[in-house]
Amino acid sequence: MMLPVLQQLRASVASLLPHAAPRPLTSLSQHWLRLQPQQTLAAFHTCTPAAGSRTVEDVQEQIDNVNDKFTDARMDIEDAREDAESTYFNESAETAAQSVAEAISAYKAICDSLTDFERGKLQRSMGLKMEQLKAELQQLNELHT
C-alpha cells in the first residue's frame, strides 16, 4: 500500500543525501503543534537570556498580558459587529481599533526584547493571533463602508 512507497521514497532521498539522517516522528515542529497557550514559553527555560533581558517569569507575565489584550480586542470587535446597524457602531469600532492597536504594540514590544531564537518561537506561537486581529479589524472596517 502507501507504506512501501514511502519507504522507497525515503530510501531514495537517503541515497541522494547520505549524510542526512531522517527526522524522528516526534520532531520539535510536531511538538510545537501540541502546545497549549499556557505552555508557549516552556521552551524558553532552556534559553540563555540576552544581555539586559528579563527573566522567563517576566516574559511569561508579558505574554499573559498580550493574551489578555488579545481577548479584550476580540470581545471589542464582536461588540462592534453587534452594533453594526446601530448608532453606537462608530464608538464601538473605535474602541475595537484601540484594543487591537494595544494588543499588537504589546506583542511587538515583547518581540523586540527577545533574542532572535526566542523571537522566532514567540512568532510561531502567537504571530497568527495578531494577524487574526488585524484581519478581523479590517472586516469590521468594511462593515461600515
Task: Give the structure's gist in a few sentences.
By secondary structure, the chain is mostly helical.
Distance between the termini: 55 Å
Q: Number of DSSP helices?
A: 5
What portion of residues is helical? over 70%
Q: What is the averaged pLDDT score? A: 77
Question: How would you describe the shape?
Answer: flat
SS content category: mainly alpha
How many strands in all? 0
Coiled coil: 56-83
Organism: [Myrmecia] bisecta
Protein name: Late embryogenesis abundant protein
Keywords: Coiled coil
Walk me through this protein's architecture.
The protein is mainly alpha-helical. The protein has a domain at 58-145. Helices cover 70% and strands 0% of the residues. It has five helices and no strands. The protein has helices at residues 2-16, 28-33, 56-82, 89-113, 116-144. α3 runs antiparallel to α4, α3 packs parallel to α5 (116-144) and α4 (89-113) runs antiparallel to α5. The longest helix has 29 residues, at 116-144. The radius of gyration is 21 Å and the shape is flat. The model is unreliable at 22-39 and 45-51 (pLDDT under 50). InterPro entries: H3-Acetyl_Activator. Residues 56-83 form a coiled coil. It comes from [Myrmecia] bisecta.
